[in-house]
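Model: You mentioned two targets. I'll fold them one after the other.
Researcher: Yes, keep them separate.
Model: Target one:
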Amino acid sequence: MKKVLFFLLISFMGFSQQNFFNVPSSDMTKAKHVFFQQQLNFISAGFQSSTTFCYGLGKNYEIGINVIGVTVDYAASLQDNAGTFMVVNGQKKWDVSPAFSAALGGQIGLSSLAEGGTYAYSNGVYKLENTKLVGGLYYTSDAYFGPESRGIGTSGVLGKFGFQAGIERNLWKEKLLFQADFISGKHSLGEVVIGGAYFISKNLVLSAGYQKPTMGSKSQDAVVFEITYIP
């Protein structure tokens, strides 16, 4: 029961900004434009719907809001569900060279039961021919991920830091992309998601992937779908 509860609570973080599936891709929303993404995660006990909006401020800044963890429970078995999170997100990116950039971002907010949550990250972004690689560190409060180790340490401050990584590769005419991402830790988001994205149009993207737990985490196998509007 706990395993299912924690999964449905935070299986879609959206992680605030544009992402592969769970890990931020550190793509920035254009100035004075709005980015939108809707994601659904399905397991046998139900599914979770979460929504992301971002607004581009220019000069590689963006801000936005997330509605995280709107849960549909097939079996009415999640009586301890901690509620939906409403959070504010933000991100800043620095272009170091044509091939490399760095980003800082995160989100902070409250659940419908007045529990606070914080997520912060730093990413390095490498752009090669037809391939994009992202990797970095993240920090989260226990309200989001629970008390389990994130992957760097087992307790104390270090226990709240972990690794995240993602890859995207163009497969066909910049319309069909391979995507995968990974988050370290034994919490309910310690997992890898492998899938892809297809550009239905210039601005509309459909993504799908399969999620597998890693490192003995509390995550679960799941099917992930996203519909994204990119300005």
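Model: Target two:
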Amino acid sequence: MRASRLVSLLLLLQNRGRMTAAELASALEVSERTIYRDAEALSGAGIPLYADRGAGGGYRLVEGYRTRLTGLTSGEAGSLFLSGLPDAAAQLGLGAEMAAADLKLLAALPQELHRGAERVRARFHLDAPGWWRRAEETPHLSAIAAAVWDQHTLDVAYRRWDGTEVRRRLDPLGIVLKGGSWYFLARPHPEPGGSAPPAGPSADPRPRTFRVSRVRELGVREETFERPADFDLAACWSEWSSEFEHSRHRLRTRVRLSRRGLELVHALSSPITAAGVQGLESGADGWCEAELHVESVAVATAEFAAYGPEIEVLEPAELRESLSRHLRAAAALYTG
């Protein structure tokens, strides 16, 4: 275990440059005291590892030093094949490259690791789209991926969620696969004034998110752009998706829930809606009141109808009336 950690510490310094003891401890999930001991052990073994004191200091390797201690454990070798997304790679236009990389990696592995990697690939398969959903048509995905890689500006005709179509000039920064749907994050250029084409990135540097399946036309420009040095795709996507989910839940409702209704909230509603019942318990009569955030009257009507008699909407009046009409119409189909 310690030998593996020492190699990891060495590779972190080799790949990232100077790092503080706190940064190394966080990356390796150990205490700073452990980092001090490991650094002494590496230095004692002849590794040219130096500690810079004072503000901005930390551990570093001597300039130009490279280690060859890059061997994989059996678990690490297997995880490389487990993380493979053959369908996604094919959609991105990288199917042949991924297959070739698999073959090269298998050929480079020692025989004992080769067998372990083959077992993982034979026993695990990832199917990204959810049940009763088919993968979206994304004819422009591979071109967008190439533009992300080569930093080429795009001219895009895009259909919004409400059906309107807009044209945008974009600097594509990254691609995300979420629940079987492809998205790309891009920095927009200013919209054209009159017939003049837009020039340069927008004054608002924040990237926007676009669904690849809604791209109707795509043009790849010869011009390239400078990728923002501080852009973090994973962090940007996490921030956007959190804001998106909360922005959709704009309607605040007040409801009564039975004991069974309290259980159903987690099964029938989103986690954001279900947050409204956190810590609640039914009263002596078996019911409790809760404030639930939902997307809209239309969405809440269909959602709360699934609760049957386990929920009563108190506010807003518009939702109460909409749910009443919905349930009366359903009941009328079964009378007589």
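Researcher: Noted. Anything on target two?
Model: The longest strand covers residues 165-178.
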